[in-house]
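Quick one, tokens below. Sequence please?
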């Protein structure tokens, strides 16, 4: 799992590359926790190269959404694949996030 973080104006763009399973979630948790500092703005989670997401990965998305909501920011999930979209549909996450 690879995470690339870019800052553009008031947005933080997070490129998620690979499989976001339980071991990867533990590995990237410190980077994602740092994003809560930017949660007052817009966080874009670019999932165009995300191959898989487990419940641990979904929990990271939910934590970011909660932090953003508390600080008046928002989380946008961008470019999800059909497989990830199916997981989002089954778990109700399509209703929780702005999907682009």
């Amino acid at each position: 799992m690879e995470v690339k973080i870019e800052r553009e104006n008031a947005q933080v763009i997070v490129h998620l590359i690979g499989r976001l399973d339980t071991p990867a979630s533990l590995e990237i948790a410190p980077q994602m926790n740092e994003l809560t500092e930017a949660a007052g703005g817009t966080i874009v989670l670019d999932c165009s190269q995300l191959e898989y997401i487990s419940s641990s990965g979904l929990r990271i998305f939910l934590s970011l959404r909660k932090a953003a909501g508390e600080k008046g920011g928002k989380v946008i999930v961008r470019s999800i694949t059909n497989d990830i979209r199916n997981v989002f549909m089954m778990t109700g996450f399509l209703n929780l996030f702005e999907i682009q």
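The domain at 2-99 is CATH 3.30.750.24 (Transcription Regulator spoIIAA). Helices lie at 22-34, 55-71, 82-91.
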